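Here is one chain, start to finish.
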Amino acid sequence: MAHPSAPSPSPFEDAVEAVRAVTLRRDLTVHEIPAPTGLAPRALALAGDIRPEPSGESLYGTGRFLLLHDPAEPDAWGGPWRVVCFAQAPLDSDIGVDPLVADVAWSWLIDALASHGAGYHDASGTATKTLSKGFGGLADEGDGAQIELRASWSPRPGFDAHVEAWAELLCMLAGLPPGSEDIDVMRMRGQARG
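Its structure:
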């Protein structure tokens, strides 16, 4: 007697399985978080923190990665998939005033996608640098700077490569290029502020 075969996984379930199988560097802690609703019929959300403290807070950088799936293929996406990511890291205030720091952050994303073979189209985003100075009770914290990158693109299959590229971007913004695991990061005065 023939047994009915189990239903095959959906493309979204296959993508989630591929993303969950990714192994990332030890100094980047990544976990699933609840995905925002209303962006797509199906979504997977990840949170990442560079070398988090026992409290869970990271002084080096943080980010979010969303994989969205809509079989209706929204015109703006040019297909059924969209990645939305966020990456943020403190900077030394001397680097924060560099007029090219936002351009460099964007180029690191594009380079990371290329180096991991993560095919994509319709990329867009913003890179924002913020400078801050403490006053009154916060004057002792000194000057600070922060870089924040928000980006989205329509990925081609191979979703694990997109997560790896996002993870590389997070580490680059935190001053941890590929191959720098277990190497101390120099902290500048006031750098931990955002």
